[in-house]
Amino acid sequence: MADSPEYGARGGGAGASRRAVLKLGLGGLLVAGAAAGGLQAWPGASVEPPLLLQVLSPRTHAILVAVAEAVCPDGPPWPRPSALGVAAKVDAVLARMDPADADQIVVALHLLESALAGAILDQRVGPFSSRPLALRRRSLEGWKISALPVRQTAFKALRGLCATAYFADPRTFAAVGYPGPPDFGQASAPDRQPAQDRALWDPTASPFSAPGADAAAPPDGASGGASAGAAPPASPLGSPPSSVAPVAPVAPTAPAQVSP
Question: Could you tell me which residues come within 8 angstroms of residue 141 by beta carbon, excluding any fewer than 6 positions away?
C-alpha cells in the first residue's frame, strides 16, 4: 500500500526519494522490492492516525505505533506509548530533519512491516504491526543483531526516536522517580515585581526604590530648583568617617638645579 500524497511530500512508498533507497545499498534495494510486494499482499494493523501528519502516512504511522509499543516500557507504572502520542511526536521530529534522513526512516518502516521480507529474513509470518507484542520484540531483536548493517542502523534510529519521545513526556517522570526540571522558585514568583510595575507606568519612580517610597512633591508655589541657603542633598554614598582626615593637595615643587 503506497502512502497517500496528502500526508506530505515525504510520506514514503512511491513518495520516498530514489536517493534514500540507493543509500541502502544492493541488499537494501532487494529487500525494498520484497517489501513492496509484501505490503500489497498482506496489510498490517490499522491505527487511527492524528489529524495532522507531516511526514508519516496513516500506514507508516501505524507501523511506528507498533514499534514504539515494542521498544518502550510496558505495564504499570509506565504509561502506554500510544497514550502519550509517541508516533505523532516522532513525526514532528522527522519534519524538522533533513528530508533524505526522514526518507530513510520511512523506508525502514516499510521494510520492517513487510510480510514477505520478514519471511525471507526473519522466518516470520505476517506483517510486523499485526504480530503480538512478544513477537514484535523478537523481530526487533533480530534487526538489532542482524548481519546486514542497514538493519542494525535502522533499529538504532527507530529505537532512539521512540525512546526519546517517550521519556521526554512529563507523564513518564514519576515512573522513573524524576521530580522534573527545577523551577528555581519561578513557579511561585509573580510575573512582574511591584517595582517593575512602578518603573513601567511612572517615569519618575525608580525600580530600585522600596515599594511605596514615591518621590516627595515640592510644595505649592515652590520652584523646582533648590532654594537659597538650603543644604545640598546628601550624597547617596554618605559622608566620610570623622576619623579620616582629608588629604591636603600636594604643592608643586621647583625642578632641581643641575650644576654644570
Answer: none
Cβ-Cβ contacts under 8 Å for 131 (sequence gap 6 or more): 66, 124, 139
Nearest-angstrom CA–CA distance, 30 and 115:
14
Domain locations in the chain as residue ranges: 5-173
SS3 category, 97: coil
Q: Is the pLDDT of residue 112 over 50?
A: yes
**Residues shown for the chain:** 260
**HSE on the CB side for 156, CA within 13 Å?**
7
Instruction: Name, in order, each residue with C-beta under 8 angstroms of 72's C-beta and a sequence gap of 6 or more.
Output: 78, 81, 86, 162, 163, 166
Is the whole model's pTM more than 0.85, yes or no? no
DSSP code of residue 217: P
The mean pLDDT value of the chain amounts to 73
Q: Which of 97, 91, 87, 103 is nearest to 45 (CA)?
A: 87
Residues 6+ apart with CB under 8 A from 23: 100, 104
